[in-house]
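Throughout this chapter, every protein is written as a compact record of paired, labelled lines. An example of such a record is reproduced below:
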Amino acid sequence: MNDTIVPDLILENAKITTLDRAKPEASSLTVQNGKIVSLDNAKDYKRDPNTKVIDAKGRRVVPGLNDSHLHVIRGGLNFNMELRWDGVPSLADGLRMLKEQAARTPLGQWVRVVGGWTEFQFAERRMPTLEEINAAAPETPVFILHLYCRALLNKAALRACGYTKDTPNPPGGEIQRDGSGNPTGLLIARPNANILYSTLAKGPKLPPEYQMNSTRHFMRELNRLGLTSVIDAGGGFQNYPEDYAVIEDLHNRGEMTLRIAYNLFTQKPKGEKEDFARWVKMTAPGKGDDFYRCNGGGEMLVFSAADFEDFLEPRPDLPSALEGELKEVVKLLASNRWPFRLHATYDESITRFLNVYEEVNRDIPLKGLNWFFDHCETISERNLERVKALGGGIAVQHRMAYQGEYFIDRYGKKAAERTPPIRRMLELGIPVGAGTDATRVASYNPWVSLYWMVTGKTVGGVPMYSEKDCLSREEALTLYTQGSSWFSSEQGKKGALAAGQLADFAILTDDYMSVSEDKIKGIESALTVVGGKVVYASNDFAPHAPPALPVLPEWSPVKVFGGYGAPLDVKKAARAGVPISHQHNHTCTSHGCSHAWHQLLAGAEATRNQFAGFFGIGCDCFAF
């Protein structure tokens, strides 16, 4: 019996995948002071009344997931305002949710569907029409973002934004017009997404106290999916330090349930160097603690290097000013020993970026900085070798799971087989971290990303990669844990369940290592632990759950619909006072529902979330 250590937490009766080569599997673990003490000898430790003991009930346990590219700080400020179509199996469900939320939304507020979905997830396999959106919400402004490609606005939103016949198209964007020159409601990135984001920015914001509540709900939503760490990639309209005040406050109050390493993203075209010169005096990489710390610069370093990944449009040609502007910023960061990351979709862009990096490297060595590219969908063999030689890494995301069909249509099936070439990156020994690039271009659900890496399929079920280029389940999980830790310079501190590492782990609803491939994307966490403390628990583990959080404001879509894969929940709707006049199911024949049954089955199979068996959620008719 070990009498010198009394664990704060003991996990027993578990199937633990440790990702520690010295001990790959275990059945128990012990935790003290937020770190793992030991595995497989819990019975040897003394327990006192303060020791929390959790029976895992034979379930699979994995290290806490770590998303190497997620816009969590910006997403948290807005989460409670957004209606999520992520994982919704049919467009009919999405439109019904839209109609219900429009009825609940007070005057002056908008309904926002801000990314994370694709039409290929729907049983109907199509986008909503502007006519459908206007019918669902004739008076409440509606903004629906589709990837980085386009946005759909109803007539009320056009009025709220002041878009008229006389509004000019912005550079790189198009306001679609009818035969009379009036805006239809469709905004198109050609290929600059600024038209989409600047329009979204016209909408109301939540007050600070609601933003804090919203951020806590987003963190808990990520905890629900087994995430314990993320690296925040900054983002447009995310200014430092102003837009970091809420997360700073939550950190100071000890209310963070997710570890965040944040990068600083320049906001000023032609003023990028000045931004970074100011920031290197205000903070530094590593400043903070294990819950909240600065990570470096990017993913936007200079606006001239932004190669927008809109595969509905041709590859953009970047301006000649790129090299000079990028060199100045990279020199500044490297000389101050700041790690940096850069958005890089196309190989043609990456070639030019690497030319700059190699030039800087001749005077200021980049090795040891843990610098990296994000995305790299079409990177070539030669440029992979150049990244390796400069000591860089590559953070990959499952954007192709949402845009694969578009890429194949434009560039062909053969080109799509290396988008991105993860297997080759690993063979070369390049550090690779997994993630999502959520919340706009893809869903934040890590299990959809893991499904994509393991099966090579899009959300719509289209196979993209050969079997040899798909990853094993353990390889994919390793990229989502140990792999991502390199990108925040925290190797050995997190990513495995081993003595001395942070006690971050998740008990899963299904066994990731053995369920059928199609069920991977429906996995959630049944209980999530961060630093030895339970931050989320449900079902059999509900007695361990932290106190419930109220949802603010009262009309928030989260109050009724929740997050990923959560169409209208009858019980939540009743509590929120949403009238339910008719619930669709497989025996329903009201207003033509019966013809939807086979279509709904296809949609539920494609999305596979925890609501897929609840057939009160959809049909392909939409009664107004």
In short: The longest strand covers residues 183-189. The CA atoms of residues 165 and 181 lie 6 Å apart. Confidence is low (pLDDT under 50) at residues 581-624. The chain is about 30% helix and 15% strand.
